[in-house]
Amino acid sequence: MKKYFANLTEALQNFLIEVGELSYFAGRFFKEFWKPPYEFKEFLRQCFYIGNRSLLLVSVTGFIIGLVFTLQSRPTLQEFGAVSWMASMVSVSIIREIGPIITALICAGRIGSGIGAELGSMKVTEQIDAMEVSGTNPFKYLVITRILATTLMLPLLVIVGDLIAIYGSFLVENIKGNVSFTLYFNQVFNILEYSDIVPATIKTFFFGFAIGLVGCYKGYNCKKGTAGVGKAANAAVVYTSMLLFIIDFVAVFVTNIFYDL
């Protein structure tokens, strides 16, 4: 029993230390973000790398989500004679919750692990130390550009994924129920309101920031040689996924309070 409590205490202590170090890392980001020089070219390169190379994966995933969600929901709605509500239900569900969180989780695996492995390999091969010796600020060049790129590109990826998911849903309805493109998307745009779109879009910026922050933190502080690179990439995905769910819960909770008022 004593050994169990000792292990539990050690795990809790390590968790609090990790939270503190991550908070300090985030504080350093906001502190150095405003200071020149600004690595604009590297920022654009990271935006292209993150957005362009993740677009196909996000598009395919969104399309499959739209197909599967509609195929699974249609029989239930048919039992209640509510198939006409399919477009409204699918669009609200995807825009509010399914699209943002699924896309963020995919990007956590695709982008977060990539950033963690890239910066981790640079850390263990002493490339970051070489940048400091040469007079370049590695934190601004490597960390700030990547966090900003993920923060700005993830909302765009979510928007693309949502649109493709809704289009995938339309294809099912068009084949199964002979619903026209005009009718389907008229129902989609009639049911959607700013209260559905704005909160869902705002929280995607926080999702992107979390992905970039954790990936950069794990990679930038990678230790224990080349074995630490794999651990950094794996930990970046695990920590980011947990953080995404926490952010999503807080965002939904705050949104509900706002609408209750």
Automatic annotation (TrEMBL):
Q: Where in the cell is it found?
A: Membrane
- The residues that cross the membrane are 55-73, 85-108, 147-170, 197-217, 237-259
| Superkingdom of the source species | Bacteria
The parts of the chain that form a coiled coil are none
Query: Membrane topology for this entry?
Result: Multi-pass membrane protein
Recite the UniProt keywords alphabetically.
Membrane, Transmembrane, Transmembrane helix, Transport
The record, for Pfam families, names:
MlaE (PF02405)
Keyword Membrane in annotation: yes
The record's comment on protein family reads: Belongs to the MlaE permease family.
NCBIfam families xrefs: MlaE family lipid ABC transporter permease subunit (TIGR00056)
Protein name, UniProt field: ABC transporter permease
